[in-house]
Amino acid sequence: MGYHVYILYSESLDRYYVGSTKDVNTRLEKHLSNHKGFTSKAKDWELKYQEPFSSRTEALKREQQIKKWKSRKMIERIVKS
Questions:
Q1: In the chain, what is the straight-line distance between the N-terminal and C-terminal CA atoms, in Å?
Q2: Starting from the edge strand earliest in sequence, which strands make up the sheet with 45-53, in order?
Q3: What are the helix and strand counts (H, E) for the chain?
Q4: What gap in Å lies between CA 36 and CA 38, rounded to an integer?
Q5: Model pLDDT for residues 10-45, shown as the tens digit of each residue
Q6: 45, 78, 80 from 6: Cα distances, Å
Q7: What is the mean pLDDT of residues 44-55?
Q8: Cα–Cα distance measured from residue 66 to residue 5, given in angstroms and rounded to the nearest whole number
């Protein structure tokens, strides 16, 4: 099993969240559960995009690349692709 970069969207916050993980479904469940952190502000996170990688290092590099853009337009372009 490889690693994934994923993008979530919350309609109530009108915000995107970018992360990486080995198991996207388990990670989404955690985002939707009671916890502390940015994603705890909403309970309507939806998976909009995921991209597979063979290693954690590759996934983290891609996650950081997307986050460095700090661009909603770029994230929406990825989601639509």
A1: 24
A2: 15-21, 3-10, 45-53
A3: 3, 3
A4: 7
A5: 999 999 999 999 999 999 999 999 888 889 999 999
A6: 12, 11, 13
A7: 96
A8: 10
